[in-house]
Amino acid sequence: MLPASCSHDVSSATPVTAAAARLPSQAANHTANHAVGHVVVHALLAFAFCIGLATNTLAQASRNGMVVAQETRAARVGVEILEKGGNAVDAAVATSFALAVTYPRAGNIGGGGYMVIHLAGANRQIAIDYRETAPKATTRDMFLDENGDPDPRKSRDSALSIGVPGTVAGLALAHQRFGSGRLTLAELMAPAIRMARDGIPIEDDIADTLPRAETRIGRWPSAAKIFLKPDLTALAPGDLMVQKDLAATLEAIAQHGPRAFYDGPIAEKLAAGIQAAGGIMTAQDLRDYRPILRRPVRGTYRGHRIVSMPPSSSGGVVLIEMLNILEGYKLGSLAQSSRIHFMSEAMRRAFADRTVYLGDPAVVSAPLGRLMSKRYAATLRESIDPERATPSREVHPELGAMREGDNTTHFSVIDRFGNAVATTTTLNFSYGLGFVAEGTGVLLNNELDDFAAKPRSSNASGLVGGEANMPGPGKRPLSSMSPTIVLRDGKPLIITGSPGSSRIITTVLQVIVNAVDLNMPIGDAVSNPRFHHQWWPDEIYVEPGLPPGVTTELTARGHKVVPTPRATSANSIMVTRDGFVGAPDPRTRGSSAAGY
Ligand code: DON
Fold first, then answer.
1. Which pick of 5, 60, 190, 373 has the fewest CB atoms within 10 Å?
2. What is the C-alpha separation between 78 and 228, in angstroms, rounded?
3. Position 270 pLDDT exceeds 90
4. What is the structure's pLDDT at 309?
5. Which H or E run contains 463?
6. Distance CA 505, CA 319 (A)
7. In the chain, helix, strand, coil percent, each to 5?
8. What confidence tier does 397 reach under pLDDT thresholds 50, 70, 90?
9. Phi, psi of 234 (to 5 degrees)
């Protein structure tokens, strides 16, 4: 059994000192203990490695601004905007458009996303919902087969799965309302347009993931000619990825604004291409798309304020519900197996509530206040047995037995004024549907698989959906994306989020718990092995690196522990007294922190 404090004195082998990367008060303690701790540190470092405690060698520190993203060029684009005097929102918009070119598996203009913003001057937080919507012709049983059973080919692999893209409208709104006013949309988009037109070399994550998408992309000649070679194998290192049609589409948006995407020749081409592929989206659906400004959900955790994404994402509500439950335990002084037990029990309960209550707030009204209240958390905590796993079938038993049943990108930005932006965007699967509407260069999403094809059926990530999340015209499918800003004393402390479908929310939870309860430097809070429970299936998924004894103890408590590969990518920033520490997630090649 390992004490939770085993990470406390492990120095980071990164350009960032461990003291600089911790929370301010903890950094002070660390410095005071430094002299006595020196020899101990080395012994513990060896110990930490043998227990699989990761040390994040990608972490970087900076004084004036920072962008941490899953792709290096896009992170640099953002930081150049900060250097030119743009604010964090300008940088986030520029980085997003760049990711649509350099990280086509999840960066996009053919999908959607969410942005959580902290405005330092006004001391105010805003959420922008630019989630895709279902076309008007969507019906409740659209993703069922002739026997009335969910047909994943329809919801994941066909043009019926394409939601009306929200990214262009969302980013333009962010720029217009919350940008610095010093840079035009065209200036923010110029680097993306240049990279689409001139091409970028295939490397890092694209080199890793494009071959896995060959079959999906190869079905559509309009997409294959951009991302594959004539023999339908993926572009590979040594090749240049040139996206001329995408450059022209971006150029039209830069010159004429977002309506150029939603109304006129581009929208006509999108609708025609989607319909020719068997989809139901019309030009009117595109014309009707609107992003929504929302009040973020807010919670507190051990003196910190948590600001995260409200529905149409489940992310913030589930995160706050879990944190409220966990606040009742001294996580930092528990044995690791006990900590994972309590955290898994909190995950199980919050994900069960997700199924029962959450959906598009335009259509369903969820008891958000109750779900995020400390009092409700206390009743849930009472139902947790410290020694035994609660079987998932006993949590919301009225749902009865369930059937058992990738990609997104998150980046974080902070500027020298103290404005912060957490943004998560997605096409749902890696490279979305793999489909490009001819002549647009726009790779389209398959987001509508996030609806429940039928109550109590599960989607591609095994998430069980309820009545609240059934398909409907104009409706936003329930998401798990959780761009989150943790504030202390009213100022940003941690900016985080992740891809990974259902794992997004538990990833964000663990980044926060690792930093706040376990005093980890942010680099390690991000790279440390993670685990995940989503209520159904009733299993804890664990990444490599947990000591074997922990699995044995969890199994003895009645948990089913299932090893899983390392996944998700929580590109995060922590503000320390020594500056901004950017922590790219080493799970994805190419993740990087760019600061100045
Ligand atoms: O919105 C959601 O929750 C999902 N469509 C996100 C998909 C995802 O993160 C897949 N990536 N790893």
1. 5
2. 28
3. yes
4. 98
5. none
6. 6
7. 40, 20, 40
8. confident
9. -65, 145
Considering just the CA atoms, what is the radius of gyration of the chain in Å? 23
Give me the mean pLDDT over the 51-78 stretch: 87
- What is d(CA 171, CA 495) in angstroms, rounded to the nearest whole number? 19
Best mutation site among 205, 408, 430, 532 for ligand 1 pocket (most ligand atoms within 8 Å of CB): 408
Q: What confidence category does residue 462 fall into, taking pLDDT thresholds of 50, 70 and 90?
A: confident
Q: Which of 355, 408, 424, 551 is catalytic?
A: 408
Contacts of 66 (CB under 8 A, 6+ apart): 60, 79, 412, 413, 414, 573, 580, 582, 593, 594, 595
118, pLDDT greater than 70: yes
Does 13 score more than 50 pLDDT?
Answer: no
Quick one: tokens of 502?
Answer: 């259902």
Residue having the nearest C-alpha atom to atom 8 of ligand 1: 501
For residues 457 and 473, the model is more confident at 473
Rounded Cα distance, 112 and 114, in Å: 7
Tokens for 281, please give them: 């989206």
Confidence of residue 51 (pLDDT cuts 50, 70, 90): very low
To test the pocket of ligand 1, the residue of 481, 503, 585, 587 to mutate (highest count of ligand atoms within 8 Å of its CB) is: 481
- Judge residue 230's burial from the number of C-beta atoms within 10 Å of its C-beta, 0-12 exposed, 13-18 middle, 19 or more buried: exposed
Minimum CA distance residue for ligand 1 atom 5: 428
- In the annotation, is 576 catalytic? no
User: In angstroms, rounded to a whole number, what is the distance separating the alpha carbons of residues 314 and 396?
Assistant: 18
Task: Classify burial at 146, counting beta carbons within 10 Å of its beta carbon; exposed 0-12, middle 13-18, buried 19 or more.
Answer: exposed
Closest ligand 1 atom to residue 131 Cα is 1
